[in-house]
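Forwarding the complex inputs:
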Amino acid sequence: MITRSGKSTRYVDSDVLIIGGGMAGCGAAYEARYWGKKLKIVLVEKANIERSGAVAMGLSAINLFLGLKWNENKPEDFVKYARNDLMGVIREDLLYDIARHVDSTVHLFEEWGLPIIKDESTGHYKREGRWQVLIHGESFKPIVAEAAQKSATEIYNRVMITHLLMDRDHPNRIAGAAGFSVRDGTFYVFRAKAAIVASGGATHIFRPRSVGEGAGRTWYSPWSNGSAYALLIKAGAEMTQMENRLVVTRFKDGYGPVGAWFLALKAVAKNAYGEEYERKYVEEQRKLYGNYVDSKPFPTCLRNDSMLREVKAGKGPILMHTEEVLNTEEKEKEGWEDFLDMTVSQSIVWASQNIDPKDRPAELQASEPYVMGSHATCAGAWVSGPEDLSPKEYFWGYNRMTTIEGLFGAGDTVGASAHKFSSGSFTEGRIAAKAAVKYIQDHSDFAPHLDDQYIKELKGEVFRPLETYEIYKNVIVRGSVSPAYLYPNQGVLRLEKIMDEYCGGWGQFYTTNSVLLNRGIELLGMLREDLPKLAAENLHQLQRAWELDHRVWTAEAVIRHTLYREETRWPGYYYRSDFPALDDKNWHVFVNSRYDPYKGSWSLNKKSMINLVE
Amino acid sequence: MPSFIYVASCDGCGQCVDICPSDILHIDKTMRRAYNMEPDYCWECYSCVKACPQNAVDMRGYADISPLGHSVTVARKPDEGKISWKIKYRNGQTKEFTFPIRTTKFGSIKSPAELEIRAQIDDQLLSHEPEIIGAVEIPVLRGKLQ
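Prediction (whole assembly, two chains):
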């Protein structure tokens, strides 16, 4: 029998603690070592850094590269593009900052050995679209992980961080983080002078379209469980734009990427009857969403909206006409590599269903919603911007510092800063790490102190699901039905059902209203109350239990933000049927929230959207 | 069950267990071989397939999506910097592709500890900047900022 009393506790001291070893975390490790040659840099990763995070499988494109060296774009152009795509609400200081640094990251990747495809005539990187460059990216993550491995003092694989730890003497100052080894059950307490949360966004908040084995085939990785948000929310950090969940249009079931097909191969999507539909509803859209319908390119959420209107009208399936563009061997290879580098499943779907894209079109579908901060969406923490760019409302001393002293964010963790993708997330890790090193230098007299009594209680809480199972398992003959406890997978299914049905999942055509949302909040509250009754038979299930905990907290922020914003800002991501129009007069603002961990209450407010680029 | 393990080939080395990002491959204590204990948390990312030295790990498409009779197999060769795929359709049609994966040797990245710091902690430059972007300074936002 494994009980909490049998678990050893291990304390690890660090200067910079990095939580999460995906793109952002690896960028943070690299830059922290550059600026902090003698610092102790510790990186903690839930899986194995070699293949962890959303880029574990690989990528077929880098979606953000400006081409400053070749005068291809200016940072201002990127700010305008991302602002339009997010329907006008975005932190321009954060976007500009990513844009001016992201090229250095991409050139570094190439130097390290990432094969970036070149345009033979110019020698520049070959463009997929205005911002995208094509790569042979199967080993993107192992390459980036190698840079982090060369940089960090210590890397702890298979340790899941469950909680951030505040300083005993300064309640709004980070002092470290705690978690457990998924392999041997050691309770880890990391002490740190500064910490960077570089964890993942969230899948399995909303019910996925495939609910059998295929539940694992979410577009965004199933191991992304919202630690990027839950760790911060539970510690009392201010969050922003959590309502801005993402729905992506992808090849049906495999969720294979469409970027190369649309942008590079110029394939066209049409309805079941061969009609193009993207601009078909533009006048109806204009009445509801104003001049954003004239943005070029047409915003991602509005493209979804056009497609959803068409499907609702009974004109589905929507088909991507791959057969019209795969006219050379080279193009066929390019199309397949798009999948094999990053979504092998789509190849399996097509092979198993005898779909050869050379011969026939392939179905597209809108995905279940995801919560992320790095793609065409911007949920996350409210952070300080850079000193030289940010107005005073957006600046409090250190770039990418959250509202908790000494706690920084990068990648999916940072909100109101969309379209970072892999390269921008790595870049944001670098930016945050430089600021964290500066923070440590500026506060050289600080040593973190933890509250020993709290650590002891926390250890009990972290391992409680194992104990709950041992205590109650013999109440029933066998099986998974117990009145005393809930298994993590049972809790995930309840969460997905609540969010799908009350917060605008695919089952409701992404539509909700205040009555539904309030009921959803009530049911989510009961799920949160049930979390202390989670049971785990082993350490793997203990990991699933804490992933569920983080998902539930993330979901609660999403649903509360969705209720607060009384408009439909991103049609195609979600609709408020009681406020069906975009309302710039009242809602051209950020929606921020804070959970008070001492009072156990949420508060929400509006923050101004300050325009920096014309 | 997305990834699965052939009993005749697996020797229980655990490399798939070690790499799986979803922590769903574990060693069965009776069989002393790996198995996928939670197929509905499998992303079909192929990390396990690529890591297996015995070619014992394979993929069968999600049961709720994929008719049987297909296969997508892979040989990743880090020393040669390439990866090869073979796709077999349900109807027997096959396609083969080979792509590069890296232009330098695995393990060749230099630690940033070896790099000289040339900018200031208080300025806006990151490591390698601004030379790496072919400029003398990084872009500056001019205009509206108060």
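Chain A touches chain B through 89 residues (CB under 8 Å).
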